[in-house]
Design goal:
Largest sheet: 7 strands, mixed
Shape: globular
Number of strands: 19
Structural class: alpha/beta
Number of helices: 23
Strand order of the largest sheet: 7-13-12-11-8-9-10
Radius of gyration: 24 Å
C-alpha cells in the first residue's frame, strides 16, 4: 500500500499543476522538505541572494507572463525580509504565492527564538495570510491560488511548520479556475442617473480614454484600439499598463503621472468625459482633481471612489469596450492630427533641460530604445530615471515594460529582470536602474551570470538619490543622506563573471548595447549621466 502524499508534496504538486515552473527563495531548515518536493516535481527552486529579491523575481516572472509567481523563505528573519516584495506584489496587482517555514507545531506556542506571527505580519500586505495544516493542504492551496489570481490579483502568504511539511496530507492537489472574468459583465447606475453608459459616451464632445492594468490583464488591446478609432479617443495609459496600446499608434496620448505629468493632466482636464478602462487608482501619484464625469469600466466595482462615476461596467474590460464601440454613433470626437499635436507638445516637454555635449538621462533611454528590438522586455527601478523611462520608452506590446508603481519599491529592477528572463528566455531583457537601486540588489546579478542569462543592466550613474535630493534642494536644504559613493561598476561586473562597460556619451552607449539581442551572459553598463536634466523635469 502506497504512502499518502506529504503536505510538502501536495503543495509542490499544486504549484506544478498551476503552471508554476520556478520558486524563488532562500533556504532554511523548516523548508528543506518543500524544496526537495519541488525538485522532484520539476519546479526549479531558484536561489536568490536575499529573500526580498526572491519576491521581486517572482513578481517579475508573473508580470512578464500574467501567470502566478511563487517565492519562499524560511522562518524568522527570512520571513520578515520577504515582506517588502510581497507587499509590492499586492499593491502592483500581481498574483504571487509566498510561502514561509515556521518552527515545529509543538514549539510554536512557547518557543521564541526566530518565531514571528506570520499571519499578523502578512495580513496587512496580502489578500490573504493563511496557515497550512496537513489535513487541509489541498484546499488551502486551491484557496491560495484562486485568491491570488482573482480580481484584483495580488499576493497571498502561507505559513507552514517544519513538521507539517512532512506530515501526510489529506486529498490530492487540484487547481481552481485562474484569471480574470470572461463575460462583458454588469452595468451599475448611480441613483438619479439617466440613460446608460453608451449614451453617456455618445453625448461627450471631448472624451479621453484612460487605460490601466486591468485592461492588460483582460488582454484588451484590440478593444482599446477599436474604441479609440471608432470614437476618436486619445488614449492615456497608466505606467504599469504601458504597451496596452502600441505607442506609435495615432491615438496614443502619453503616460499618466510620469515625466511631464502636468502636460498629460492638462489633456485630461480638457476632457468632458474620462473612460477609465481598467484604471487602478493605486497608480496615482498626483491626487485626482478632474471635474469631468468618469465612465468606470473595470473587472471590479468602483469601490475606491477616488472619482465618482454615474455608470459602472463591471466585467471583462475588452468585452465592455467592444460593446461601447459597437454602439457608438456619429463621427470621431478627436482627429489623429489633434492627438499628434498633443504628442509633439508632450515630447518637447520630455526633452526639456538637456545639456549639450553630455550624456543626459533621455539620451540613455533613446539609445537603448533605438538598439532594442520590438520584443525587448525592459524593467526599471524606482527613482528619477523611472519617471523618464515611464514616459519616454516607446512600448509596443503589453507586459513589455515592468515596473513597480503600486508600492514603488527600490531594489525591484534587477531581480524583476531575472524573473522576466527566466520567464521569456527567447526575448531580450534590458534593466534600466539608478545607482541607488543597483546598490540595493547588485549581487543578484551573480545569479544571472551563473544561469547564463543574457540580460543588459544599464546603471544611470550620478552618485545621487536624485528624487529626494531635488526635494531637499527645493527646500534650500543641503544634500543629507542622498549622496552615493562612487562605485567601479566595470570591476564589479568582472567580479561577478559578467561583462562590464562604461559609457560617457550616447555614441559610447550605443556601441556597448550593440549586441543586446545576442547576449549570452549579463552585461552591466555604467552610464555616467549628467543629472541636470532631472532638475528641469522635476
Amino acid at each position: 500500500m502506497s504512502q499518502p502524499a506529504s503536505t510538502a508534496d501536495v503543495m509542490a504538486a499544486a504549484l506544478a499543476a498551476a503552471g508554476v515552473p520556478f520558486v524563488f527563495g532562500y533556504p532554511g531548515d523548516p523548508i528543506i522538505e518543500f524544496m526537495e518536493r519541488c525538485r522532484q516535481r520539476e519546479v526549479d527552486v531558484v536561489l536568490a541572494r536575499r529573500e526580498g529579491s526572491a519576491g521581486f523575481m517572482a513578481e517579475g516572472y508573473a508580470m512578464a507572463t500574467g501567470q502566478v509567481g511563487a517565492c519562499l523563505s524560511t522562518l524568522g528573519p527570512g520571513s520578515t525580509a520577504l515582506v517588502n516584495s510581497v507587499a509590492a506584489a499586492t499593491l502592483d496587482r500581481v498574483p504571487v504565492v509566498a510561502i514561509s517555514g515556521q518552527v515545529a507545531t509543538a514549539q510554536e506556542p512557547f518557543f521564541t527564538h526566530q518565531v514571528v506571527n506570520h499571519e499578523a505580519l502578512y495580513r496587512p500586505v496580502t489578500k490573504w495570510a493563511g496557515r497550512m495544516e496537513a489535513a487541509t493542504a489541498a484546499v488551502t492551496m486551491r484557496k491560495a491560488l484562486r485568491t491570488a489570481t482573482a480580481e484584483r490579483p495580488g499576493a497571498v502568504h502561507l505559513s507552514c511548520a517544519g513538521d507539517t511539511f512532512k506530515a501526510p496530507a489529506g486529498g490530492p492537489a487540484e487547481v481552481p479556475p485562474l484569471g480574470p472574468p470572461l463575460s462583458a459583465g454588469q452595468v451599475y447606475r448611480a441613483p438619479g442617473a439617466s440613460g446608460d453608459p453608451a449614451a453617456q459616451l455618445a453625448a461627450a464632445r471631448r472624451p479621453v480614454l484612460l487605460a490601466g492594468i486591468g485592461a492588460v490583464r483582460c488582454g484588451a488591446t484590440p478593444a482599446v484600439l477599436r474604441l479609440a478609432a471608432a470614437a476618436g479617443l486619445p488614449v492615456v495609459v497608466s505606467p504599469m499598463a504601458k504597451g496596452i496600446i502600441p505607442e506609435d499608434s495615432e491615438w496614443f496620448a502619453g503616460v499618466l503621472d510620469m515625466a511631464c505629468n502636468d502636460t498629460v493632466w492638462d489633456l485630461l482636464r480638457g476632457a468632458d468625459l474620462v473612460v477609465a478602462a481598467g484604471f487602478d487608482p493605486v497608480e496615482l501619484i498626483k491626487p485626482w482633481t478632474l471635474t469631468a464625469p468618469v465612465l468606470h469600466v473595470d473587472t471590479v466595482p468602483n469601490t475606491d471612489q477616488v472619482y465618482a462615476s454615474d455608470f459602472e461596467i463591471v466585467g471583462d474590460v475588452g468585452a465592455a469596450l467592444d460593446w461601447l464601440a459597437d454602439g457608438f454613433p456619429g463621427h470621431p470626437r478627436w482627429s489623429p492630427a489633434e492627438v499628434a499635436a498633443f504628442r509633439a507638445r508632450l515630447r518637447a516637454a520630455y526633452y526639456a533641460g538637456r545639456v549639450a555635449g553630455r550624456l543626459n538621462p533621455t539620451d540613455v533611454i533613446d539609445v537603448a530604445r533605438g538598439v532594442a528590438s520590438r520584443d525587448t522586455i525592459v524593467t526599471t527601478d524606482v527613482g528619477s530615471h523611472k519617471l523618464l523611462v515611464g514616459q519616454g520608452w516607446q512600448a509596443m506590446d503589453p507586459r513589455s515594460v515592468l515596473m513597480t508603481n503600486g508600492l514603488s519599491s527600490m531594489g525591484f529592477g534587477i531581480p524583476a529582470a531575472i524573473g522576466a528572463k527566466l520567464a521569456r528566455p527567447g526575448q531580450p531583457v534590458l534593466s534600466l536602474i539608478g545607482d541607488g537601486g543597483f546598490a540595493m540588489a547588485a549581487t543578484e546579478i551573480r545569479l544571472a551570470a551563473a544561469r547564463r542569462l543574457g540580460i543588459a543592466f544599464v546603471v544611470f550613474a550620478d552618485g545621487s538619490l536624485n528624487r529626494i535630493e531635488l526635494k531637499q534642494s527645493a527646500l534650500s536644504y543641503p544634500s543629507t543622506a542622498t549622496r552615493i559613493e562612487d562605485m567601479d561598476v566595470v570591476l564589479m561586473a568582472q567580479a561577478m563573471d559578467c561583462d562590464g562597460a562604461r559609457a560617457e556619451s550616447a555614441a559610447e552607449l550605443e556601441k556597448c548595447l550593440a549586441g543586446l539581442s545576442g547576449l549570452t551572459r549579463p552585461l552591466i553598463i555604467e552610464a555616467r549621466i549628467d543629472p541636470a536634466q532631472y532638475q528641469s523635469q522635476f
